[in-house]
């Protein structure tokens, strides 16, 4: 028969084994949670950066044929006036001298600087982003291409572009000169990693690109011509 001491030792061993099993199981659960969390983070990161992976294709659209391009719907002036007070107001404190250029759209109270292509902060997670292939406003018949997120995040600098209509003005300040642009076309494209820019090659233009409001499958392109 087992002595009391032997029974205690056996019980202690069983408890130790149970503790080891519990610890190992907890470790497996923790690793599983970490793996799921990491995969979720990677997926979210890819979603955030996906808008940067754009293959820009340009298509010459003359002033005579521009009406053939489908125009995206926009909110009416009445709808805009009701929500205008919610536009973030804190842009006045920024030192815009640090930027390559500054984009202003008065209708939606947007004023945001952008950096050059070789700047580390020319990134959609920080700022309005200058897209490869862009030319600056002083290049005749060139095309300045800018993009930013829409939505509710703090980096959604183009969150209110959907309120814009054809005929609205935007301004870009570059090298101390303020250039005036006017929206001439708005259209949606599928979010496939490729954006076709339909613009008139005989005009100096600016293109703004962002995700389409309430549609995760498409992006909206705004074509503006210098006036």
Structure characterization notes:
With 227 residues, the chain is an alpha+beta fold. The chain has helices at 4-50, 77-83, and strands spanning 55-60, 101-105, 110-114, 129-130, 143-147, 169-174, 177-190, 194-199, 205-211, 218-226. It has two domains: 1-50; 54-226, Beta Barrel (Sortase, Chain: A), CATH 2.40.260. The chain contains two helices and ten strands, in the order H-E-H-E-E-E-E-E-E-E-E-E. The strands form two sheets. An eight-stranded mixed β-sheet has the order 3-2-6-7-10-9-5-4, with no helix packed on it. Strands 1-8 form a two-stranded parallel sheet. Strand 2 and strand 3 form a beta hairpin. Residues 40-52 and 63-91 have low confidence and may be disordered.
Keywords:
two-stranded parallel ribbon, Sortase, Chain: A, single chain, 2 domains, alpha+beta, 2 helices, 8-stranded mixed beta sheet, 24% helix, 227 residues
């Amino acid at each position: 028969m087992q002595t009391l001491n032997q029974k205690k030792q056996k019980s202690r061993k069983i408890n130790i084994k149970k503790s080891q099993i519990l610890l190992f199981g907890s470790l497996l659960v923790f690793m599983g949670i970490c793996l799921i969390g990491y995969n979720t983070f990677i997926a979210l990161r890819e979603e955030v950066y996906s808008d940067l992976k754009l293959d820009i294709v340009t298509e010459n659209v003359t002033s005579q044929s521009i009406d053939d391009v489908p125009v995206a719907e926009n909110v009416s002036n009445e709808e805009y006036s009701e929500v205008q007070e919610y536009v973030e107001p804190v842009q006045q404190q920024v030192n815009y001298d640090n930027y390559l250029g500054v984009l202003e759209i008065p209708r939606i109270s947007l004023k945001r600087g952008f950096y050059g292509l070789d700047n580390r902060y020319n990134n959609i997670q920080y700022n309005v982003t200058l897209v490869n292939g862009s030319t600056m406003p002083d290049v005749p018949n060139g095309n300045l291409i800018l993009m930013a997120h829409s939505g509710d995040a703090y980096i959604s600098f183009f969150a209110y572009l959907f309120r814009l209509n054809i005929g609205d003005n935007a301004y870009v300040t570059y090298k101390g000169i303020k250039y005036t642009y006017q929206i001439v076309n708005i259209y949606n494209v599928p979010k496939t990693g490729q954006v076709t820019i339909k613009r008139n090659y005989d005009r100096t233009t600016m293109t703004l690109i962002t995700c389409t409001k309430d549609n995760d499958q498409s992006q909206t392109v705004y074509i503006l011509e210098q006036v």
